[in-house]
Amino acid sequence: MASITIAIPDEQLEKLQQLARESKVSTEDLVRANLEDWLANSNDDFTQSASYVLKKNAELYRRLA
Question: Quick check: is 2 in a domain?
């Protein structure tokens, strides 16, 4: 497994640590779980948004073509 190091402001780290304590998990596990969720769903969100825009503006795109 690879590792990554990022710099974040102290206040964001404190918020992450607080959320981790409330969830009874480590800060690393909290970040990893949210990253996995974001990666799994980000493509679906983009696809849904793109489909909405294309459908909404279909007539305009047809006239411009």
Answer: no
